[in-house]
């Protein structure tokens, strides 16, 4: 596959992942035609600051289920291959929209979580952070009396400055940018593939369905599972490196 060749030739490779990276672990994505979360629920009613303040019960119910899902499932073959490629210095880092923590759990070190994480909750009043297990026990109160909420970015909120600036630096200097499992429909996260392309990177999009950015890509792979594609690339890399 051309991607294996590009991976070997590139001096800096960045991976960008979306919910499609974790469907093979058992987690639903958001906009897939057949099972996306937002096909059944209106995100603005659930995953927003308004929902947290005005629709508390539905908000907690939704996020308790998502935290349970993240704890029930685990990183898949694709997550582990990306961690191996980082160890072998084939990739520099992973910019992810996912909040499941699976890249880190699989062993990836340089992971920029643009939309935060379900692994933690924090107090809206004093900012104290707890493991999301507290949430699972139905404990929504901080020791200070404030309300606990998942440490994910809700619609209408700013992205974490640290993750955003690291992702921007990487996107500006990388020479190969590979998108895995994202519809690229949410900004500002969906600007990173463009920034990389505009700074001279080759852009690859591997996604089951077409995305709004396919026409910018140097290579697009549709209708194939990420796990299979990454496995094929890894086999080629091993053959060529022997
Ligand atoms: N292999 C390849 N592609 C897949 C697979 C798979 N196994 N499973 C799903 N996909 C594709 C789907 O076809 C879909 O186009 O992954 C894409 C996932 O897109 P979305 O569901 O829109 O998820 P994502 O792009 O990560 O959403 C971005 O939206 O709701 C917010 O904060 C949330 O981070 C999320 C953001």
Structure description:
With 242 residues, the chain is of the alpha/beta class. The chain folds into 2 domains: 1-27 and 75-114 and 158-242, Rossmann fold; 28-72 and 116-152, 2-Layer Sandwich (SIR2/SIRT2 'Small Domain'). The protein is 39% helix and 17% strand. The protein contains 11 helices and 9 strands. It has helices at 2-9, 37-40, 43-46, 49-54, 56-72, 77-87, 102-105, 133-136, 161-173, 192-198, 226-241, and strands at residues 13-17, 93-96, 111-113, 116-123, 129-131, 148-152, 176-180, 202-206, 219-221. It has a 6-stranded parallel β-sheet with strand order 3-2-1-7-8-9, with helices on both faces. A 3-stranded antiparallel β-sheet has the order 5-4-6. Helix 7 (102-105) links the parallel strand 2 and strand 3. Helix 1 (2-9) crosses helix 11 and helix 9 (161-173) packs parallel to helix 10. The radius of gyration is 18 Å and the shape is elongated. The model has no long low-confidence stretch (mean pLDDT 94). Bound molecules: adenosine-5-diphosphoribose. Adenosine-5-diphosphoribose is lined by residues 18-20, 23-24, 29-32, 36, 43, 97, 115, 181-183, 185-186, 207-209, 225-226. The site of adenosine-5-diphosphoribose (APR) has 23 residues, from loops.
Quick structural gist:
Its EC number is 2.3.1.286. It contains eleven helices and nine strands.
